[in-house]
Write a structure and sequence with these properties.
The two termini are about 25 Å apart. By secondary structure, this protein is an alpha+beta fold. Strand 3 and strand 4 form a beta hairpin. Strands 1, 2, 3, 4, 5, 6, 7, 8, 9, 10 and 11 form an eleven-stranded mixed β-sheet that branches. It has four helices and eleven strands.
Length: about 230
């Protein structure tokens, strides 16, 4: 477990892609258990509330509250979208604009663990907004018609699978996202593997929560891929 920052109220940890944030119905290691073990080793109260949960295949910064009071405060900030969450992503394709804003309405299917873009009037539709900026575009070797684009994303709302759904719905699925990528993502991944430069590890989605602003201070990670 790599600790990025710690004080009396909070703990910021780097979650590797492939590691669970919180325990599921398995015996796999999860980040909450590691934080609790760490706190017990320091003779502290074994309390750890996850403020920003990341999907298992996604890496990046995860914020934990160390007290119930801190959990209430930080959760409120999360709901008010004041934590300023920034992501890196590798997408299959290239946006038409170098900068832009995506605004959609998403509906979550809890049983299937999926979200989809729906009309504003749909039942349980929730507004989803993000801003993106293109940083770099590379081409799969011998396949110049297959651009892979590195983008920086400012997540304004925090909906279920939001970044993955919003990009995939525009024909720009995230590399490694087999859930929303369909055949487009599969073709890209196969071409990259054949080229000898897969860019990401198996079972990883090319999405990283690289920056988080908490209590007026920003914490950042380096770019996790060699693009």
């Amino acid at each position: 477990m790599k600790i990025i920052y710690e004080d009396t109220e909070k703990l910021i940890v780097e979650k590797p892609a492939g590691v669970l944030t919180q325990s599921a119905r398995s015996f796999d290691t999860d980040l909450v258990s590691e934080v609790l073990t760490y706190r017990r080793s320091k003779k502290e109260t074994a309390y750890a509330a996850v403020i920003n949960r990341l999907d298992r295949p996604v890496g990046g910064l995860v914020l934990f509250a160390k007290t119930k009071q801190a959990a209430a405060r930080l959760s409120k900030e999360m709901q008010q979208n004041t934590l300023n969450k920034q992501y890196y992503a590798l997408i299959c394709g290239k946006p038409e604009q170098s900068k832009g804003t995506f605004v959609d309405y998403l509906q979550k299917d809890a049983k299937a663990n999926l979200s989809k873009v729906v009309s504003k009037e749909s039942k349980e539709a929730k507004r989803a907004e993000l801003e993106y900026e293109v940083l770099k575009t590379v081409y799969v070797q011998a396949h110049e018609q297959m651009p892979v684009t590195l983008v920086k994303i400012h997540l304004i709302t925090g909906r279920h699978h939001q970044i993955r759904v919003q990009f995939a719905s525009r024909g720009l699925p995230l590399l490694g996202d087999t859930r929303y990528g369909d055949q487009t993502e599969a073709d890209y991944r196969m071409a990259l593997q054949k080229s000898g430069k897969p860019l990401i590890q198996q079972y990883e989605i090319a999405l990283c929560a690289y920056a988080l602003t908490v209590d007026k201070k920003t914490y950042e990670l380096a770019l996790p891929w060699q693009v």
